[in-house]
């Protein structure tokens, strides 16, 4: 097992890029800005309560730009936090999918018979399967051919079936051709679809 895993260069995966600023730093900035705004609002209220009688209206007016600037600064920091979180989520998804590809490769090296399950799932999704051609990786060809009689018996409805080698199909996956269209059950296609689903979910969040 260790020999198979050693064949994959996990270190080649691009690491997560460090965020522009740690979230803890952003929280500290928010705390300072919030405290400054509270002080400014307190001073403004005190000036309002005492200032009109003693001619401090100018002091109140001078606080307004400062309060506006503080409010905008807090909004900017929070927006940056959200942006950093989204970027980290995106990079985490990319890294997760890259790791999944490596793990799938290792698993198929240890359990090559898993391709039979992929073929079965693809065939179950086909309504008109009386005449089909199953394309698999050359290394999976004999495994699938040997399993085909059992699949035909358990699924039914398959009158004519050809299993052929196709180098463009990675190990563990398959493409099933029928008179009405193809079913792409390649491993890389499944991972791409998973990535699209997650990316769409992140876009809605």
Automatic annotation (TrEMBL):
Keywords: Bacterial flagellum biogenesis, Bacterial flagellum protein export, Coiled coil, Protein transport, Transport. It comes from the Bacteria. GO terms for biological process: bacterial-type flagellum organization; protein transport. It holds the Pfam family FliH. InterPro entries: Flagellar_FliH/T3SS_HrpE, T3SS_Stator/FliH. One of its GO terms (cellular component) is cytosol. Residues 67-193 form the Flagellar assembly protein FliH/Type III secretion system HrpE domain. Residues 23-50 form a coiled coil. Transmembrane segments: none annotated. Belongs to the FliH family. Needed for flagellar regrowth and assembly. This is FliH/SctL family protein.
């Amino acid at each position: 097992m260790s020999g198979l895993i050693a064949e994959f260069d996990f270190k080649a995966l691009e690491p997560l890029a460090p965020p522009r600023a740690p979230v803890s730093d952003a929280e500290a900035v928010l705390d300072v800005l919030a405290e400054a705004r509270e002080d400014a609002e307190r001073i403004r209220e005190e000036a309002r309560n005492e200032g009109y009688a003693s001619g401090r209206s100018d002091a109140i007016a001078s606080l307004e730009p400062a309060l506006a600037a503080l409010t905008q600064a807090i909004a900017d920091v929070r927006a940056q936090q959200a942006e950093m979180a989204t970027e980290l989520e995106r990079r985490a998804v990319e890294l997760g999918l890259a790791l999944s590809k490596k793990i799938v490769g290792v698993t198929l090296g240890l359990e090559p018979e898993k391709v039979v399950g992929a073929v079965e799932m693809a065939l179950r999704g086909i309504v008109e399967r009386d005449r089909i051609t199953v394309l698999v990786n050359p290394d999976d060809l004999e495994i699938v051919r040997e399993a085909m009689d059992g699949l035909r018996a358990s699924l039914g409805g398959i009158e004519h079936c050809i299993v052929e080698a196709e180098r463009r199909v990675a190990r563990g996956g398959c493409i099933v051709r029928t008179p009405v269209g193809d079913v792409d059950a390649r491993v890389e296609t499944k991972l791409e679809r998973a990535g699209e689903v997650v990316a769409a979910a992140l876009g809605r969040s």
